[in-house]
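Design review, sub-item: ligand-bound model
Attendees: FS, YL, KQ
YL presented the inputs for the arginine complex:
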Amino acid sequence: MSDLLWQKPGVKVDARIQRFLAGEDVVLDREFFAFDIQASRAHAQGLQLIGILDGDELAGLERELDALAMDFKAGRFVLDERYEDGHSAIESRLVERLGDAGRKIHTGRSRNDQVLVATRLWLKDRLVQVAALCRESAEVALARAQAEAALPLPGYTHLQRAVVSSAGMWWAAWAEGFIDDAVRARDTLVWVDANPLGSAAGYGVNLPLARDHTTAALGFGRLQVSAAYAQLSRGKFEMAAIEALGSALLDLRRLAWDLSLFTSAEFGFVALPAQYTTGSSIMPNKRNPDVIELMRASYASVAAARTEIEQLLSLPSGYHRDLQFSKGAIFHAFGRGLGALELLPDLLRNLEWKPEPIRAALDPSLYATDLAVDLAREGVPFRDAYRQAADPARWAQGDPEASLAARVSPGAAADLRLQVLRDRLAGLC
Ligand code: ARG
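KQ shared the predicted structure:
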């Protein structure tokens, strides 16, 4: 372990306590390392702008920070237990390579704003991915809604067959859902897109830090004005990001549930792409939908991470070390969540409907509601029409295509209004 930044002369730090304080933390900091280096570069530029560093010192720091980023990426620099955390590792490397310029980098900053800025940059990157995957999934669903608008499918309520619906309606629902999720990820990104660097330990510093410069250099949309609020917002913005991810994962969970049911022999409506199924170690006959089950389960990790952070936030204002645990929570949530979302577009692209079992499931009862509405259209008060249409003797096996076509604005196979969704998708580009 390199010297601790805060170690007092004559006080030895117990190894077990050190493990407890930093333990897995330094390893988690690998996720943030590239962003921490990027923010360090912007901070150094800011220090030069206010005269704390001269031009040569800045050039050296920029060169060494770039080299460190490359060494880290290439595996030549390993962030491990030799360091207390990623922040100390950066400083210690700069001191080792540059001497005084390295010793100056921490002027006017604290690990508290370092971790905040790295977290925000990391989350921005992940929210872009969430939005892109939701958008791509919506695109696939929308194309299939169009192509399969007239393919009948039972519509269920209470998991009981209810009315004639269509694959188009099923697809359009997921398309609209994932568009909403993409919008939410983007809106959350805008909300998270604020620069905390310069807030130091949570109370600012007695230097005119070039905060506007670091805001622009790091590509933030705005500055977090209040240093105290920058700290206070820790945990809160992570929760918001997890909720945006969770919104997509909630839709994915229900979609996966549909597919679990639809692929069972009892329904038999859907065949999954072969790569999305596995076998059993004992039952040679099995084709199991493990992939969609793990996609479904991923929401649990996201929800748990959100709860963990919410529990951590039971704190007065100011920095508290408790907040460190928010890192593991976001990594877990986005690791699982993005892992699941990544597989979604291809899954949707390659699902196959099985028309025979679907057709067989469209029993005459599914036309009862249409019948009641037809009678009402002819002038029978709906409540009376409803009673008449409740009589199974009046149910004939209807024509599913005609039933779908009747539920329309003139001219469309079903009133899916896909153009509205197409326009929303185009707005997301
Ligand atoms: N690992 C710490 C965290 O995530 C970094 C900040 C440390 N600050 C401190 N005052 N000990 O919160």
